[in-house]
Specification:
This protein is an all-alpha fold. 69% of the residues lie in helices and 0% in strands. The chain contains 11 helices and no strands.
Length: 193
């Protein structure tokens, strides 16, 4: 994968693809290569596989790769992985990475999977991000998706809502109502109504 000969790179890539799941250890090892091209190709192949076995390597790359673009790409590769470990890693990256692009990528990936559990950290994150940053705008969207609330992009509103008990009871009540509606609907169907 690290060759300058494009034919060799394509051949190696095809061979790794042919091995399927068996190639995961080699691809994960490639994420630590000293060559950016190899790390990039391995990340692309792992991201395309969408398997849990690749998560640890992708998360490690997102946290520590020396290249900003690869850290951002690694965070984007985690889109849709609704796992507590992934949510924590994305949130940690949004908090700690020094590059705004990486922060924004991590937040974009978190938007799809954030839950009420992440709400306090997301609200706190609002206060450390620059007001007009893409990451901050993404945090508000993550909050909206996680809570169902449609507050303006105002950290004080979110903080006040959360501090007054917002979300904890509200979402539980929403779930309870949804369950009750479903049972009622099923009961009507079983009675022929």
């Amino acid at each position: 994968l690290g060759s300058s000969d494009i034919v060799r790179v394509k051949g190696a890539s095809a061979a790794l693809e042919a091995y399927g799941e068996q190639a995961l250890p080699a691809l994960t090892k490639g994420l630590k290569s000293g060559r950016q091209q190899v790390r990039n190709m391995c990340l692309g192949m792992l991201a395309a596989r969408r398997v849990d076995g690749a998560l640890d390597g992708i998360v490690a790359m997102m946290r520590a790769d020396p290249e900003v673009g690869l850290r951002a790409a690694a965070s984007e590769a985690l889109v849709g992985f609704d796992r507590p470990m992934v949510r924590r890693a994305l949130l940690e990256t949004a908090w700690r990475d020094k590059d705004d692009r990486v922060k924004a990528s991590a937040v974009r990936s978190l938007q799809r999977v954030a839950t009420v559990e992440e709400v306090p950290a997301l609200i706190d994150l609002i206060n450390i991000l620059p007001p007009d940053s893409d990451a901050r705008k993404g945090v508000f969207e993550a909050l909206r998706r996680a809570t169902g609330q449609r507050f303006a992009s105002d950290g004080a509103l979110w903080t006040g809502w959360w501090d007054s008990g917002g979300g904890r009871e509200t979402i539980g009540e929403q779930i309870q109502v949804a369950i009750q509606k479903r049972f009622a609907e099923e009961a009507r169907k079983s009675q022929g109504r």
